[in-house]
Amino acid sequence: MPASTDITGLAGIAGALGCMVTALPGLRELSGQKVAWLVVAVSVVAVVPVAGWSVAVGVRGVTGDLSMTTMVWLGWSRWRRGPREATMEEARWEEGSRFGLEILIGVAALALYPMALGIGRIDPYRLGYGSGWFLSTLLVVALVAWFRRAEVVALAIALAVLAWAGRWNESSNLWDYLLDPLVSFYALGRWGARGVRRAHRGITRRLAGVKR
Amino acid sequence: MRRLTIWGERKGRRGVGLGLILVAFGAGAVRCLREAPPEGFRSGGAGVTVAPDRTVASRSEEAARGGLRTDFVSLRAGVRTHAASLVELKNGDIRAFWYAGTNEGTRDVTIRTAVLETRTSGWGPERVVTSRERTQEEVWRYVKKLGNPVVSRAPDGALWLFYVTVSVGGWAGSSITMIRSQDDGETWEKARRLVTSPFLNISTLVKGPAITYTDGTMGLPVHHEFLGKFGELLRIDAQGDVVDKVRLSSGREALQPLVLVRDENRALVLMRHAGKARPRRVLSTTTGNAGRTWTAPTGSLLPNSDAALAGMVLADGRMLVALNDTEERRERLSLVVSSDGGASWRTIYRVEDQSEPAWQGLNETDYAAVIERLGEKTVGARRGASDYASSVKRVMFSKQGNTFEFSYPSLIRASGGDFHLAYTWNEAFIKHVQFSQAWLDERLQADARLH
Question: Of B94, B158, B173, B258, which is the most exposed, with the fewest CB atoms less than 10 Å away?
Answer without folding.
Answer: B158
